[in-house]
Every structure is written in C-alpha cells, then in structure tokens.
Design a protein that fits this description.
It is built from three helices and six strands; from the N terminus they run αββαβαβββ. The chain has helices at about 5-30, 60-70, 95-105; strands at about 30-40, 50, 80-85, 110, 115-120, 125-130. The termini are far apart.
C-alpha cells in the first residue's frame, strides 16, 4: 500500500471511530437525579384527553412505557432519563421533554396546568415529567 493511501485509510478509520463514539457517548452521560414521565389516573376536568392508542412506542417510548406501567400495581413511571452536563446530551438524545413538547403541539386540547391528559382503555391518565431520586 502506498503511504498516501495508508494515511487516507487511517484517517477514514479514525473519523468513523470518532463518529461512532459521539453516537454512543450522549447516552452514557448522566448528571443529577433522573427525570421520569409519570402517568397517574386522574379526572380529565376541562381538557380533552388524547387517545393514547394513537401514539407509538417508536416515537413516544417514555409516554407508552409510563401508560403501560400505570395499571394496577404498576409504578406509572417511564424509564429514567438523566440530563447531561452543559446541555450536550439534549442535542443528541431523545428525552421525555421532547415527547411532552411534541404531544403538547399535536394535542393542544389535552394540555392543562403543565400536564397532558391521555385516555387509554377507558381510563384518563395525567402525564407529567418529574425529577425523582432513585432509579
């Protein structure tokens, strides 16, 4: 192999390794107490709850997990999400805050007092992002 070709191959390899590391790194960063999306049965009040069956687990994993776990004896909490230092992580990862913002835009009538309301199997759930100690 010619020296210039060898350098080019090493450079491409190094770039690929750095890009792969940047893809994995944000998920490993953890700072402070974790955030959860919680779902708790609640009266709808003056809002129109959205149909939780319309949201998919691929696009809204925190929402669907919280609602699935809100059944009898369940915690009603999604998987934990930790914010990273200096806001670096938020630009590269999906968070419960992203889901809350998207659902607020998509279902404006289902939002009141900082919470969203969803209907699933005849039960209305209040969805809220909370920060709690412990995992």
């Amino acid at each position: 192999m010619r020296p210039i070709t060898k350098k080019a191959v090493y450079t491409i390899f190094a770039v690929v390794v750095v890009l792969l590391a940047l893809g994995a790194l944000p998920g490993l960063l953890k700072s402070g107490e974790p955030y959860y999306l919680t779902a708790a049965a609640a009266p709808a009040g003056n809002v129109t709850p959205f149909n939780a069956s319309e949201v998919t687990g691929n696009r809204f994993p925190y929402t669907t997990t919280a609602i699935e776990r809100a059944g009898p004896g369940g915690s009603g909490r999604s998987d934990p999400y930790w914010r990273g230092p200096v806001g670096f992580k938020g630009a590269f990862t999906h968070s419960p805050f992203d889901e809350e913002n998207a659902l607020n835009r998509q279902y404006a009538d289902a939002s009141a007092n900082g919470s969203l309301y969803a209907r699933h199997n005849g039960t209305v759930y209040r969805l809220t992002v909370v920060q709690e100690a412990g995992g």
